[in-house]
């Protein structure tokens, strides 16, 4: 039996679980999901639902046979479907005495620190009132640069946002396999994994079915984020009867991915997972040792070079001389300014630039250390 700490649970349900292949809503499946969530809520747990399906619902209402391909089309179809989806959730949850609250997010809500804190406080308040937040990406207004890319990534960021104990990703697959079961019938389900084992043993596949935007690689990306933040992850088949109650009771269904032993602080999680990487800073071995083992800030004297163009206030990756990323942080100076002061003492900054905003290029309060396992899946999928 799995021993799960699951006082606060984020549940992500995909389009394929909520709709038929033709795009129309699967009402019986939604009703079973709602009943299962209501049981968890009644047991004293706090539940947050990250729900796909708005575009699928809109497709059904509009009589479309295929998923929209352009952003404006998706926005319009989602605008039709989101209200319909929430109407269904409201009606079904009310039958079990549960109150729901709609929350629509864009990546901008997560990247901006004040909006991030506002979203975090709003969700905590909703939970304190005993309601169930139902979260989706705000597809109606989101554009490419503000999109999460998929609701697997969104669910992991939400789990980090609210300090969740457990993230359950429900899909149309039984869990994580050693190879793609759609290609190799001899594939073996991997029931319990540490995150390093996940990275070593799994070959991520491509996108999933025609109705969903996700695939196993987006679920692995979600696991990468959530487990690094200290949240356990289960990937399981949403079609299994009473799947949520059975998982939370410890039944070994799907794949459980154990979290990191130490949880990052809220601000560290925001820097690590929510801010897009604008560039990289290469440091010497002395700076690497000072940052990683002695808790120091990054000073200009320890910088060997930079990659990319970025402005002050943006997030960058900090890498060793051999190219291994080991930290992320918010820079106090732009890439052009850092090029000029790299390798020099902090006391020389004003002489070189003509001004001096900070002694540090990245202050320790704006630096977060992340072990190498986090970066193994970097670039897999489209989590940004």
Q: Concise description?
A:
This protein has about 375 residues and is α/β, with parallel strands linked by helices.
Describe the structure.
With 384 residues, this protein is α/β, with parallel strands linked by helices. 38% of the residues lie in helices and 17% in strands. It has 15 helices and 13 strands. An eight-stranded mixed β-sheet has the order 3-4-2-1-5-7-8-6, sandwiched between helices. Strands 10-9-11-12-13 form a five-stranded mixed β-sheet, with helices on both faces. The longest helix has 25 residues, at 71-95. Mean pLDDT is 85; it is low at 203-214 and 376-384.
What is the distance, rounded to the nearest whole angstrom, between the alpha carbons of the first and last residues? Answer: 35 Å
Instruction: Tell me the number of helical segments per DSSP (H or I, 4 or more residues long).
Output: 15
Decide which structural class fits the backbone. Answer: alpha/beta
Q: What would the CATH topology of the largest domain be?
A: Carbamate kinase
Enumerate the strands of the largest sheet in spatial order, edge to edge or round the barrel.
3-4-2-1-5-7-8-6
Largest sheet data: 8 strands, mixed
Q: Unreliable segments (pLDDT under 50, ≥5 consecutive)?
A: 203-214, 376-384
Looking at the overall shape, the CATH architecture of the largest domain is 3-Layer(aba) Sandwich
| Estimated share of beta-strand residues | 15-25%
Looking at the chains present, what oligomeric state does this protein adopt?
single chain
Average residue pLDDT: 85
Could you state the order of secondary-structure elements as H and E? EHHEHHEHHEHEEHHEHEHEHEEEHHEH
Structural domain tally: 2
Helicity range of the residues? 25-40%
Tell me the CATH superfamily of the largest domain.
Answer: Acetylglutamate kinase-like
What CATH first level of the largest domain would be assigned?
A: Alpha Beta
Q: What would the principal axes of the Cα set say about the shape?
A: elongated
Number of strands: 13
Report the radius of gyration as a whole number of Å: 22 Å
């Amino acid at each position: 039996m799995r021993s799960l700490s699951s006082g606060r649970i984020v549940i992500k349900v995909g389009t394929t679980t909520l709709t038929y292949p033709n795009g129309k809503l699967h009402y019986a499946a939604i009703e079973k999901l709602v009943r299962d969530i209501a049981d968890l809520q009644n047991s004293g747990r706090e539940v947050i639902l990250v729900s796909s399906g708005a575009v699928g619902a809109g497709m059904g209402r509009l009589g479309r046979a295929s998923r929209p391909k352009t952003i404006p089309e998706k926005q319009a179809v989602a605008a039709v479907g989101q209200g319909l989806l929430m109407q269904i959730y409201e009606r079904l949850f009310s039958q079990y005495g549960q109150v729901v609250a709609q929350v629509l997010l864009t990546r901008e809500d997560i990247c901006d620190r004040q909006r991030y804190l506002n979203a975090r406080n709003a969700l905590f308040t909703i939970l304190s009132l005993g309601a169930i937040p139902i979260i989706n990406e705000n597809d109606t207004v989101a554009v490419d640069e503000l999109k999460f890319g998929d609701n697997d990534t969104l669910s992991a960021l939400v789990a980090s946002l609210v300090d969740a104990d457990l993230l359950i990703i429900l899909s149309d697959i039984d869990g994580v396999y050693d190879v793609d079961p759609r290609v190799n019938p001899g594939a073996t389900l991997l029931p319990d994994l540490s995150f390093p084992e996940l990275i070593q043993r799994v070959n991520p596949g491509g996108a999933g079915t025609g109705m969903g935007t996700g695939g196993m690689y987006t679920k692995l990306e979600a696991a990468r984020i959530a487990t690094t933040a200290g949240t356990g992850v289960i990937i399981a088949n949403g079609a299994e009867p009473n799947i949520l109650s059975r998982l939370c009771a410890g039944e070994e269904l799907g794949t459980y991915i154990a979290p990191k032993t130490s949880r990052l602080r809220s601000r560290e999680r925001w820097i690590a997972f929510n801010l897009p990487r604008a560039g990289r800073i290469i440091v010497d071995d002395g700076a690497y040792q000072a940052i990683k083992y002695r808790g120091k800030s990054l000073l200009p004297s320890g910088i060997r070079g930079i990659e990319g163009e970025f402005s002050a206030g943006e997030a960058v990756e900090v890498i060793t001389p051999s190219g291994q990323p080991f930290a992320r942080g918010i820079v106090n100076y732009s890439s052009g300014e850092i090029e000029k002061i790299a390798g020099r003492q902090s006391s020389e900054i004003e002489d070189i630039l003509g001004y001096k905003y900070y002694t540090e290029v990245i202050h320790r309060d704006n630096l977060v250390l992340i072990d190498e396992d986090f970066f193994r899946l970097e670039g897999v999928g489209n989590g940004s």
